[in-house]
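Teaching soon. Invent one.


***
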Amino acid sequence: MSDDILLREDRGAVAVLTLNRAAALNPLSDAMLAALKSAFTALQGDRAIKAVVLRGAGKAFCAGHDLKEMQAGRQAEDGGRAYFADLFARCAEVMQMIPRLPQPVIAAPHGIATAAGCQLVASCDLAVAAEGTRFGVNGVNIGLFCSTPMVALSRNVPRKQAFEMLTTGAFIDCDRAERLGLINRAVPEAQLESAALELAQTIAGKLGAAVKIGKRAFYEQIEMGLAQAYEHTAAVMVENMLWRDTDEGITAFIEKRKPVWQQ
């Protein structure tokens, strides 16, 4: 692979991003966070890309933050307070960029996804994992509670299950991760790339503008009360219905033909 810390390969309307620091298990170092922010910023305005796959090089997806880099931050006069505050703020910014992207993002973890690496999986819109992948928010094992990974995790899995993972530092396997809702499904590792790409290409084949408006509304309504959510999503559907391409899609369905979309 290239020496670049983050690789991007476009396969038609699908962008494949690969965390590429395999020897260190692809940690979310300062450089990796900067690379992800840059890549997500570019994707934000890329109308040719309809879906994104996020994977890791080597034998693991992502082992979380770079602990050696974090320890080096302690050498500052303030003991690392400013560096740690900045690090976690930057990480939170990157995680929040994922649901704000117009394209659905599919995590394709294998090996391990731990601490901030598990947070990264939980922050993605979808996840297809390789069988045998282990997931954990295991910072408590070294005296660091995974408080920021907890935000994404607790929005994916039931609260008692999340709290158990956070307080015990125990790993869960793919079967349990799927039952809890952390991943959509698991496939044999040899099929991981093709399975993630197949899902991405299925999504990329839909009307991109509809997926974009739907993804935004999904995350907006989930933070609302029931009545407000219905009011908001009704307005979104009205806007969607008035599009030329939606008119064409419905007409094509009635006429039993493929739609001819402009977007």
Q: What stands out?
A: The chain is about 50% helix and 15% strand. The chain has two domains: 6-204, 208-254.
